[in-house]
Write a sequence for this structure.
């Protein structure tokens, strides 16, 4: 068989259902092999869109999302989406074609060293130089996307290797058994928690990756310890849960920092340092840290780990609960919760009035099974602070690499992974238009979703930082196309919202419909910090 056929057989054996990407001269054999398999090739309009689709597919399923490009410019177009997945610790497999091996040693058409390009944003970065090694390379690559800390893997397949005749079979899938610490570890952790006056749980993205939200909620209910969550781990506790102190992250602000500043012990569960720099909330290094994670974390002077508990989060949380007595005095954090509730429901200025009302309405009207995918911009801060999902694992926020432009392609992957669940995109006009071409992909393959676009004609998050730094607001303004005409050209239903009532009517008509929808939220208020 051709090497490309073996490559695809190995992908099928790993359970791959979709590959997102573009065909090119150097990957036509691989594309042909995919077309003869059970794997569906989703043709995108740009490789960056393909990488973002693979990213979000990996987040939702826990299995590697796969993207494919040709050599040279196709490969470089993947880089942003691959980096986005890697820093958010998402399982992703990027496959790139390459020129014939007979011209890799010299200057030649479209030939750049893509192995070097991918080296800083992948866990494993391997060219196939002999067709007989394909089963080993794919088995290792797919395994590493999810092993310990998930992340991105890159495999390069030169065009002449893809055409070679070869023999071989896929290697058997590797099953991992969960790891649990020993009893004395739990006893040491319990003793440290019981000594603390005001402990708090900091829940991170690792809880979502590990699908350990039920176990963490049970731990909170059992111990009565309050909890804050990062932007990427929203929904673990219901909004009305008395121990829920809501989200932390992004630009530090006093009300948001109070829960962590009041603590003398932070129990970090599945927290990744990339989610919220500890210098923002532990600059004085007065808070002790217990790290509960699937891996040990990077050394950080503002994250001084007293105890490092590494293993399967579900097993750890279940076992740890039995060793800790329920706390009765939570008065300090009870007062903080009251202040935070007031902050969440108070509009401080005219600029934030409509965005907050949009978020509050989403809190009420989003179906329990709906996904919300936030692009990157000032609206991400609004989503992260004010949006309260009804279920965990249903809010996708790009917050490690934090690239703009991932929401539209991400919505497509979300609908493929969960076709029965409504999908809502929240984006600014900047991020929405960065990969707007993928609306054609969505229409072509029938992945319907609703896009809420805040239109203010500027990069508002940068403008906010300029104002906070005492600088004049400059070089952040742009004009937009007529979004009603843009929606029509992509076959979308269009709604314009200039008020809370406008938005309510538009969202009610959109969220459960069988069409693609665009809600333009016109936001022209003067910015204030």
């Amino acid at each position: 068989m051709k090497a490309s056929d073996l490559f695809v057989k190995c992908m099928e054996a790993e359970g791959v259902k979709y590959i997102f990407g573009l065909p090119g001269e150097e990957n036509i054999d691989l594309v042909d092999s995919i077309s003869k398999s059970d794997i569906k090739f989703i043709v995108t309009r740009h490789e960056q869109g393909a990488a973002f689709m693979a990213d979000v597919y990996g987040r939702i399923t826990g299995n590697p999302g796969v993207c494919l490009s040709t050599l040279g410019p196709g490969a470089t177009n993947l880089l942003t989406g691959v980096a986005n997945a890697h820093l958010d610790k998402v399982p992703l497999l990027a496959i790139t074609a390459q020129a014939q091996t007979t011209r890799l040693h010299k200057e030649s058409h479209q030939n750049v060293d893509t192995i070097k390009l991918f080296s800083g944003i992948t866990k494993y970065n391997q060219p196939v130089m002999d067709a007989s090694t394909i089963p080993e390379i794919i088995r290792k690559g797919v395994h590493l996307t999810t092993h310990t800390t998930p992340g991105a893997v890159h495999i390069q397949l030169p065009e002449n290797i893809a055409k070679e005749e070869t023999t071989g079979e896929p290697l058997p899938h590797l099953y991992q058994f969960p790891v649990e610490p020993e009893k004395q570890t739990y006893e040491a952790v319990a003793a440290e928690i019981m000594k603390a006056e005001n402990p708090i749980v900091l829940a991170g993205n690792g809880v979502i990756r590990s699908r350990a939200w039920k176990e963490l909620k049970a731990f909170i209910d059992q111990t009565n310890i309050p909890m804050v969550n990062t932007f990427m781990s929203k929904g673990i506790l219901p909004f009305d849960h008395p121990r829920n102190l809501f989200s932390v992250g992004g630009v530090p602000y006093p009300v948001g920092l109070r829960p962590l500043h009041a603590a003398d012990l932070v129990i970090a569960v599945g927290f990744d340092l990339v989610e919220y720099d500890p210098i923002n909330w532990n600059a004085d290094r007065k808070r002790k840290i217990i790290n509960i994670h699937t891996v040990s974390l990077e050394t950080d002077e503002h994250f001084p780990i007293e105890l490092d508990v590494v293993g399967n989060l579900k097993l750890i949380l279940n076992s740890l609960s039995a060793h800790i007595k329920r706390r009765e005095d939570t008065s300090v954090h009870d007062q903080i919760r009251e202040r935070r509730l007031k902050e969440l429901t108070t509009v401080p200025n005219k600029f934030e009035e409509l965005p907050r009302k949009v978020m509050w309405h989403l809190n009420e009207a989003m179906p329990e099974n709906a996904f919300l995918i936030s692009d990157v911009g000032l609206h991400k801060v609004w989503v992260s602070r004010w949006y309260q999902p009804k279920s965990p694992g249903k809010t996708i926020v790009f917050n490690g690499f934090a690239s703009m432009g991932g929401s539209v392609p991400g919505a497509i992957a979300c609908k493929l992974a969960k076709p029965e669940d409504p999908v809502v995109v929240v984006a600014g006009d900047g991020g929405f238009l960065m990969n707007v071409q993928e609306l054609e992909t969505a229409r072509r393959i029938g992945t319907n979703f609703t896009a809420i676009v805040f239109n203010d004609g500027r990069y508002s998050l940068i403008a906010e930082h300029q104002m906070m730094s005492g600088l004049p607001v400059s070089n952040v303004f742009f004009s937009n196309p007529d979004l009603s005409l843009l929606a029509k050209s992509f076959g979308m239903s269009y709604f314009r919202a200039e008020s809370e009532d406008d938005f309510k009517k538009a969202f009610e008509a959109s969220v459960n419909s069988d069409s693609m929808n665009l809600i333009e939220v016109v936001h022209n208020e003067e910015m204030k910090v």
The first strand starts at residue 18 and ends at 21. DSSP finds 21 helices and 18 strands in the chain.
